[in-house]
Amino acid sequence: MAADTSKEELLQLIKRITFKISNLFHISSNNVDSQSIGAVAGLAIAIFFTWRLLRSPGESQRRQRKRQAATSSSPGVSTHSNASVVPSGVCSSSADSRAQNVVDEFFQPIKPTLGQIVRQRLNEGRKVTCRLLGVILEESSPEELQKQATVRPATLEVLLEITKFCDLYLMERVLDDESEKRVLVALEDAGVFTSGGLVKDKVLFCCTENGRSSFVRQLEPDWHIDSNPEIISQLARFIKYELHVSSFRTERTAANVFTAPSLEQFFGSI
């Protein structure tokens, strides 16, 4: 009887694990990563420990029955000791609960890293062009760059993650050479060039908005990020994906155009 009960418990455990795995791996083969492989590798460990948990109550019962048999054969021992025996159904329920807890704990969802979110949001795009004003920099006009250039701290982390696996080009319209120097110094001070993914030669400057649009078309990126709605509209039919960074809620102009209040908010969650 005990063996049949253990087999039934193991069967129920396997069913629960199978159900959770089917949910965990409901992804395409192209998206299999180290997290998925780690889950498979750890599955055997989970089954081993949960099986040990299931077996332990039965072994405990057998030891208890042996002690009771030895006690009942000794003189002067009360026959009421059998009343302290825990019903097998209670032990089975306790084992089932512990096994369920182990399975639930093992399959707790793992929060993706920022790098994983960036890769998924960009749909594995490998080349990105991005405007500086209103996206990477606090300033929003070329006139402001004649006075100062300030990298947005909240955007910096996302920018560095993009440079790790994307060929990134930054570009902006400026009014003079001093503005160019100011922008490059601000980027350098923020540590953008120290990660190895971005070099100063990939920061491009022009004197007109059409010049920036021309840069993008020549580079043929997978993604272009801009805060100018006219540039976004002009490039929508040439670029695979675009991100329009705007503090105002706007209607989606095309299926391949996404909108977000800021770069970091676009990559804030899956």
Task: Tell me what you see in this structure.
52% of the residues lie in helices and 11% in strands. It is α/β, with parallel strands linked by helices and 270 residues long.
Layout of helices and strands:
Elements: H1 2-24, H2 34-72, H3 88-106, H4 114-121, E1 127-131, H5 142-145, H6 153-165, E2 167-173, H7 177-189, E3 203-206, H8 209-219, E4 223-226, H9 229-235, E5 241-245, E6 257-260, H10 263-266
Parallel strand pairs: 1-2, 1-4, 2-3, 4-5, 5-6
Helix pairs in contact: 1-2, 1-3, 2-3, 4-6
Can you describe this structure in just a few lines?
52% of the residues lie in helices and 11% in strands. The chain contains 10 helices and 6 strands.
The assembly state of the depicted protein chains is single chain
Strand content range: 5-15%
H/I helix tally: 10
Q: What sort of overall outline do the alpha carbons produce when their principal axes are compared?
A: elongated
Spans of at least 5 consecutive residues with low confidence: 27-32, 77-84
> Which structural class matches the secondary elements?
alpha/beta
Radius of gyration: 31 Å
The whole-number mean of residue pLDDT values reads: 77
Query: H/E order of the elements?
Result: HHHHEHHEHEHEHEEH
Strand order of the largest sheet: 3-2-1-4-5-6
